[in-house]
Amino acid sequence: MARFIIRRLIAMVFVMFAVSVLTFLIFNVIPNGDPAARMAGKNSTPQQIEAIRRDWGFDDPLYKQYFTTMKKVFTGDLLSYANRENVVDRIKDGAPRTFVLAIGAAFIWFISGVALGLFSAVKAGKVSDRVVTVLSLIGISMPVFWLGALMNYYLGYKLGLFPNGGYVTIADGGVFDWFYHLIMPWTALSVLFIGVYSRVVRSSVLDTINDDYVRTARAKGIGERRVMRNHVLRNSLIPVITLWGLDFGAVLGGGAILTETVFDIQGVGQYFQESITRLDVPPVLAVTLFGSFFIVLFNAIVDIVYAALDPRIRLS
Amino acid sequence: MTDKPLLDVEHLRVGFRTEEGVVQAVDDVTFQLHAGEVLAIVGESGSGKSVSALTLMGLTPKENAIFEGIARVGDIDVLTAREEQLRRLRGEEVAMIFQDPMTSLNPVQRIGAQIVEQILAHRDIPSAEAYDQTVELLERVGIPRARERIQSYPHEFSGGMRQRVMIAMALSCDPSVLIADEPTTALDVTIQAQILEVIKELRERTDAGVVLVTHDLGVVADIADRILVMYAGRVVEQGTLDEIFYDPQHPYTWGLLGSIARVDRPRPERLPSIPGMPPSLHDRPTGCHFRPRCRHEFAQCTQTPSLEARNPDSPAHTDRCWLSVEEKRAKREIAAGQIGLEAKGAIA
């Protein structure tokens, strides 16, 4: 176990190094990528651009620029090229919002997805199963920016049932207002996942339900509910929990870019989106590292949980 | 033997609705099982033997099934019983051992917990006591260091050990009927013999009745009292072990006996086999289902022969073949030594 964790930590360093190098290189080869020109503005002289280039170190060799930038990421001195804000501070501000969005949505989609999938598997082939199937396919097919915009327009603007986007901290508006503002973002982010998870749970349960040991469980004379809970669900949720860990990690790391942007959450994902449109390398690099940290971390957690859930798996 | 049978199956028919029409998996099967008796149900794949066994547990998938007849366990007809009645019956009155011990245990639950779960479903006792009983059961079926092994997971056991666990589980509530559906098919021969030993010992100790579903006549010769030979959903011959092995009446039974490999006799170039394939259950031949594969077919075979005793000397020995007893004796051409039980252990 200790060896496993150490190996994963080493792997994590390598992954994040590779991700940062790739991100850095991509922004150096894309057209219009010269940050000095953009920072100098439209009506700038070549001398001004040259001055900025010298001040910010853009004339250094690429590897040197990379190491300077990376050093700043870890010392917390990294500044945005676009507005000279401190990038690490911005991520620190946005992270709690992103976490709240991710944690809430992840619970909603896991519980609803499992419930719907289980229901649909038990009713397999019947009308109610078909209804759930169609609903999940609709959920999967709706792009979150479109769904979010519709929710904002109809539920927020037209009917006034919910606030029209925005994020209110508990300190500012109290628990109720905080929660009230999160209902629509949580829902919008969950819909796609609920659709996917109910499909996955349904097929996993249907696979398990015909397994020999489920027949054995029935032959033991235990009640049908117990058979479902201890034997069918227990086994069919193992792959679903794996999937959930990975998705949750991605959303925690700022993966819910569209949801954050549509509802103006001002979290890490939205910061990422804004930075990309400005071709602002430092925040893009920092958020990418932030996101890949969570993805790699949750990969390792998923492996550990998987081994705990299934005794046949050994961490080695 | 008591008068009241443990199992009483009368004219049991089980069909499944499919897109190609109703498939009659079990067609008019009648038998009884008494305490202390081992009844073997023998037949090829698809002969309806496993479906018959599952039906006795009320475990046949119900959605598309059509049941007719009676299948009584004690006083309860499993075909009409409510789910709660069936639940109490399963594990407590009738217990089952399945074919493949590698897949029949829950891979993520400890061995002990799986047996305890069954005991607690039927007995109102503290779980510590159920664990003690489980240890005893595992010791009884020959698992060493049972006290430690109850903490193991199935994948830590070999196939033979897992089948012992299955048997221990089946025995946990002292069932009066044990149904073993090909319990040794997935195991190698030495383990097979050990498992059969365990089943025999159980029968002697508890006086339970055993239904042994198998296609292995070697196993049958070793353990059975009475034999039911099934073909394409029907019982084609029924009799005691001696009757079937010394005086088989149905040409299908001749074929089965003829195709046994015996280690105590010179081996033929090729083992004789029954020509042809078992019929598809969608499209069974009219009359005797074995007709297309039978070398002795004649005009009357297009009518279905009833299952009856045709030899006045052995009234309990029934078969479904139109040939007279004399004709059968004359036509039965099984190589010398293939019939009989002189060397019980020599059938491999």
| Euclidean distance between termini CA atoms of chain A | 8 Å
Find the biggest chain interface: A-B, 23 and 29 residues
Helical residue percent band of chain B: 25-40%
Work out the helix count of chain B: 11
| Poorly predicted runs of 5 or more residues of chain A | none
Strand order of the largest sheet of chain B: 6-7-8-3-9-10-12-11
Oligomeric category: heterodimer
Sketch the topology of chain A as an H/E string, one letter per element. Answer: HHHHHHHHHHHHH
Helix residue percentage of chain A:
over 70%
Task: Report the end-to-end length of chain B measured between terminal Cα atoms.
Answer: 31 Å
Calculate the mean pLDDT score of chain B and round it: 87
Number of helices of chain A: 13
Protein described:
- The complex is a heterodimer of chains A (316) and B (348).
- Chain A has helices at residues 2-29, 35-40, 46-56, 62-75, 87-122, 127-141, 144-158, 170-209, 212-219, 224-255, 257-262, 268-277, 281-309.
- In chain A, helix 9 crosses helix 10.
- The mean pLDDT of chain A is 90.
- The termini of chain A are close together.
- Chain A is mainly α.
- Chain B has 348 residues and is an alpha/beta fold.
- Helix content of chain B is 30%, strand content 21%.
- Chain B is built from eleven helices and twelve strands.
- In chain B, a hairpin with an 8-residue loop joins strand 11 and strand 12.
- Chain B is globular and about 65 Å long.
- The A-B interface holds A 211-213, 215-224, 226, 230-231, 234-235, 238, 309-312 and B 57, 59, 83, 87-92, 95-96, 98, 100, 103-109, 117-118, 121-122, 153, 155, 166, 169, 173.
Provide tags for this entry:
heterodimer, A: 316 residues, mainly alpha, 79% helix, globular, B: alpha/beta, four-stranded antiparallel sheet, 11 helices, 12 strands
Task: Provide a concise account of the structure shown.
The complex is a heterodimer of chains A (316) and B (348). Chain A is mostly helical. Chain A contains 13 helices and no strands.
